[in-house]
Amino acid sequence: MRARTWQMIPSSRGISALYLVGGVLLALSAANQLTKEMAVLPLLSGLAAVALVITAAVGLVRPGSRSSAR
After folding, report:
1. Whole-number Å distance between alpha carbons of 13 and 63
2. Beta-carbon neighbour count of residue 70 at 10 Å?
3. pTM of the model
4. Which of 1, 31, 44, 47 is least buried, going by the fewest C-beta atoms within 10 A?
């Protein structure tokens, strides 16, 4: 039995673009919430959005890093 590895980078350019749009929207929403009050949940949401944008950018810039479709 083969061990499965987790692939964080999306498998196609379209999904990477979708992740990028979703990450930007989440980051804008978290930034809007943080301007009103300092809370833990919007801060965590903003950090997750930044991670999503970085993951999408890697998928768009480096096609060799995308996981292969099985």
Report:
1. 8
2. 4
3. 0.68
4. 1
Block residue for tokens 């009050």: 37
Task: List CB contacts of 20: < 8 A, sequence separation 6 or more.
Answer: 52, 53, 56, 57, 60
SS3 call for 59: helix
CA neighbor of 19 nearest in space, from 39, 48, 41, 43: 48
Q: Name the token pair of 4.
A: 């499965």
Q: What is the pLDDT of residues 12-68, one digit of tens each?
A: 888 888 888 888 988 888 888 888 877 788 888 888 898 888 888 888 887 766 555
Query: Which pLDDT does position 40 carry in this prediction?
Result: 81
